[in-house]
Amino acid sequence: MSTIDLVAVVHIKSDYESWKKLMLSHEDNQERVDAGKLLYGQVDEKTAIVLNFEMDQEAMARRAGNPEFAELIKNDVESHDFYVLQEMRPPS
Fold first, then answer.
1. Do the domain assignments include residue 91?
2. Which has the closest alpha carbon to 5: 83, 81, 59?
3. What pLDDT, in 10s, does the model give residues 4-22?
């Protein structure tokens, strides 16, 4: 399994609390939060940020292309912007 550290900027259609409830109830998100593998926060009423550490790349790709997932989020999420995180180390 290949993993990646991702940041997602979530552009919210509904409101932050509705999105948060949906996000935490989906698949293993609450477990990942509890384990410190998923961090999230409110930027403003229509924007959230999610840091997802050690995300299974294949699972992420399947989720992103799944019509059921699109249906699930359609009332709460306008769009996502995804970024890859890399650790920055001081020069040696």
1. no
2. 83
3. 999 999 999 999 999 999 9
